[in-house]
Design brief:
alpha/beta, binds nicotinamide-adenine-dinucleotide, Rossmann fold, single chain, 193 residues
C-alpha cells in the first residue's frame, strides 16, 4: 500500500493505459479521479475502482479546455482533497502523411496531448506549490525519440511533452522515488534504446 491515502488525478483514465494506471494506483491504496472526456466510461471505471476499497470519482474533462481543467481540479479538491499525484495520460492520434495532414489534425493532437498536459500541470502545480509536495507523471511515446511516418503531429506533441516535463521536473509518485526528478523512463520492450 505504497500510495495509501494519496489522491491521484489521472486524465484519460476511463480506458486503456490510463485505466490500468488508475487500477494500479488504487491497488496501492490511492484514491483516484478518473478525468475523461467520455464521462459514461469514466463513471463505469470509477465504480470498478471503488470495489477495490478506495474512493474514486469520475470527472468530465476535456484537457484542452482551460475552463474545464480549472473546474475539474476544483471538483477534485472539493471531493477528494489535496492533489498528491497528477498523471497526464489523455492522448489521441490523427495519423496521416504530412502532405495530407490537415491543420485540424495537427491542432487536435497538439491541443490534447501537449496543451492539455500544460493546462493540467499548471493547475496542479499551483495546488502542489501550496501543499509543498506533489508528483506529476506524463505519458510520452517512443515516437518522440524515433519519429514515425504518418505521425508528425503525434511525435511532435510527445517530444514537446518531454521538454515540458523536464522543465517542470517533478516525476514519480511513491516516496521511494523522491530522489528521481526530471527523467525520461523508457518502457517500450526494446523498441528504442
Ligand atoms: N497504446 C499505446 O501503444 C501507447 C504507446 C505509447 C504511448 N501511449 C500514450 O498513452 C496514453 C494512453 O493511450 P491509450 O492507448 O490507453 O489510449 P486510449 O485511446 O485507449 O485512451 C485514451 C483516453 O483518453 C480520453 N481522451 C481523449 N481525448 C480526451 C480529452 N480531450 N480530454 C480528456 N480525455 C480524453 C479517451 O476518452 C480515452 O479514455 C496516450 O497519451 C498515448 O499517446 C500509448
Amino acid at each position: 500500500m505504497r500510495l495509501k491515502d494519496r489522491n491521484a488525478f489521472i486524465t484519460g483514465a476511463a480506458q486503456g493505459i490510463g485505466k490500468s494506471i488508475a487500477m494500479g494506483m488504487a491497488r496501492e491504496g490511492a484514491n483516484v479521479a478518473i478525468a475523461d472526456i467520455n464521462i459514461e466510461s469514466a463513471e463505469e471505471t470509477a465504480q470498478e475502482i471503488k470495489e477495490l476499497g478506495v474512493n474514486s470519482l469520475a470527472i468530465k474533462l476535456d484537457v484542452s479546455s482551460q475552463e474545464d481543467v480549472a473546474k475539474a481540479f476544483s471538483t477534485f479538491t472539493d471531493k477528494l482533497g489535496p492533489v498528491d499525484i497528477l498523471v497526464n495520460n489523455a492522448g489521441i492520434t490523427r495519423d496521416t502523411l504530412l502532405m495530407r495532414m490537415k491543420e485540424e489534425d495537427w491542432d487536435a493532437v497538439i491541443n490534447i496531448n501537449l496543451k492539455g498536459t500544460f493546462l493540467c500541470s499548471k493547475e496542479a502545480v499551483k495546488l502542489m506549490a501550496k501543499q509543498r509536495q506533489g508528483k506529476i507523471i506524463s505519458i510520452s511515446s517512443v515516437v518522440a525519440f524515433m519519429g514515425n511516418p504518418g505521425q508528425a503531429n503525434y511525435s511532435a506533441s510527445k517530444a514537446g511533452l518531454i521538454g515540458l516535463t523536464k522543465t517542470i521536473a517533478k516525476f514519480l509518485s511513491s516516496a521511494e522515488a523522491d530522489y528521481i526528478t526530471g527523467q525520461v523512463i523508457h518502457v517500450n520492450g526494446g523498441m528504442y534504446m
